[in-house]
Amino acid sequence: MRPGDELPPLTVPVTRTLIVAGALASRDYQDVHHDPELAREKGSPDIFMNILTTNGLVGRYLTDHFGPASVLRSLSIRLGAPNYPGDTMVLTGRVEAVDGDTATVRVTGTNGLGAHVTGTARITVGGAS
Amino acid sequence: MDREEHLTAQLKAFEGRPAATRATGKDPVNLPMIRHWCEAMGDTNPAYTGPDAVAPPTMLQVWTMAGLSGHQGLSGQGRSPHQGLSRHQVRSAAYDDLLALLDAAGCTSVVATDCEQEYLRPLRPGDEVTFDTVIESVSDRKTTKLGTGHFVTTRTDLRVGPDLVGTHRFRILKYAPARTRKTPPRPRPVVNRDNAGFWEGVRRHELLIQRCTGCEVLRHPWLPGCNACGCPDWDTVRASGEGTVYSYVVMHHPPFPAFDPPYAVALVELAEGVRMLGNVVGVPYDKVRIGLPVRAEFRAYDDELTLPVWRVAG
């Protein structure tokens, strides 16, 4: 694990099912995450993924790569282009810094519209908790 | 202080006020909710299953969500979970008041923009999460692609018993959707040094015709010199406003954002003899005919734009 290491990309098909399942699993019943008609009334072309699902997918991306013994210490994300149904998001990551057994990783999720999410995580590898 | 500054000052007063105080998560950390989350995320990490399971750290906010039913003491029915702030137990009214103020200002839509979390220790099934949320900041008015509004940042400290287990900073944009803004403004006339006098007249509700001081010929549109004699000197004559439709078109297509087709555009011959373009009003677009008598009037399209239009006379 060295600064500059690239994580293999993860391709996430942004299905309507993923958006709704993610919203419900995160207890988020905002209508814009499950009701296309109400989403349109609020100026959105369709339902879109909630931030908690994006957060969960980024977390999964990191722990998939660093392994089940790794421990996420912090995660900061910012959303940009929304994830609408039918799009595909590709997550990529790069190790920015390494401090002992803890890496700082920059993550980007890009969809057909642009950068959906940019974020920074700190993750401890090797299971020290 | 204008209205916007007044609103911003009202909003800023919420900074530092609590949004939730010693609130309790609706459910203790539990395996079924963890499993549902992992199914949705496609997360097969074995750390989240089995007798020593921990919750995915990114579920932190989930344990604070109010869910569909809201919480006690509230009307419930389809109330939004307000971006993760539980309404359970001791709950400050400040956050509701802040959102209501923004709603009243037209910022009725909400979108989450930032989430910053620190995970101090893993959460395990059985952990009862309590949390305190403070309104950290409310931004000045910002214009984004989505619309114009204010960013609201909250910070939540999550505890199990006395122990801080995680922190969660969350930013939403409360905004007025760009889509619901009024019809876009009508295009502005191109005002230059040769025609500025005409538009100054329109502002005073006067229709001014240029007159050559060399040969007395009237002309419109305004030009720097006379087409009849070449003389550069001129003065103006105030038009009576009487005219007839000399020719016209009805615009059906293409639609243009500031206009509402179909509408008639006429070339009007003024009583003084010159011709001007303008919309015909006061009659359906399909009733406009050559020879129709019209009279000039001035219509304010917005705070900055007044144009002469032609109303059917008599």
TrEMBL record, chain A:
- Matching InterPro entries: HotDog_dom_sf, MaoC-like_dom
The identity of this protein, by name, is: MaoC family dehydratase
- CDD domains from the xrefs? SAV4209
Q: Which residues form the MaoC-like domain?
A: 10-112
Q: Which domain of life is it from?
A: Bacteria
Similarity-based family: Belongs to the enoyl-CoA hydratase/isomerase family.
Pfam families documented for this protein: MaoC_dehydratas
Say which species the protein is native to. Answer: Streptomyces fuscus
